[in-house]
Amino acid sequence: MYRRVTQLMLQEPQTNTYERKASFTPPKRFHKMAKKILMSVNMRCEKCRSAALKIGGQTTAGVTFVGLEGKEKDQVVVIGEGIDAAGLVLRLRKKVGFADLISVTDVDTS
Questions:
Q1: Of 29, 44, 60, 104, which has the fewest CB atoms closer than 10 Å, so is most exposed?
Q2: 36: buried, middle or exposed (CB in 10 Å: 19+, 13-18, 0-12)?
């Protein structure tokens, strides 16, 4: 048994050749299109509302508009270029609570 342990200790550690990317980067052709992302967020108080708007504005440098929509102002709208909609929803779920992606549409900038 001692010999087996020393053999294992003398072996070089195996390295994993597969490296996973930290986040998804969409293809370059999608970066130039402005998108309107509409999300439903459960906002219980004014603090949750301001946190949702802050997270929406901090996503990337391409954000041009962040606002609230809906009858009860429970939907967050983010308009901009190169925004990862799924990543934005995940951040909202982590910081605010329930968040659901309603739609992602192209915006005509002309």
A1: 29
A2: middle
Report percent pLDDT > 90 for the chain: 30
How far is the C-alpha of 67 from the C-alpha of 41, rounded, in Å?
A: 12
DSSP state of 31: T
Average pLDDT over residues 59-67: 84
pTM here?
0.66
**In the numeric block, which tokens belong to residue 12?**
């070089």
CA gap 85, 97 in Å, rounded: 16
Q: Is 62 left (phi over 0), alpha (psi -120 to 50) or beta?
A: alpha
User: Which amino acid, one-letter code, is at 98?
Assistant: F
Q: Which segments of the chain does DSSP mark as H helices, in order? A: 2-10, 46-57, 85-95
3-state secondary structure of 67: strand
Longest dimension (CA), the chain: 75
User: What is the per-residue pLDDT for 101?
Assistant: 95
* CATH class given for the domain over 29-106: alpha beta
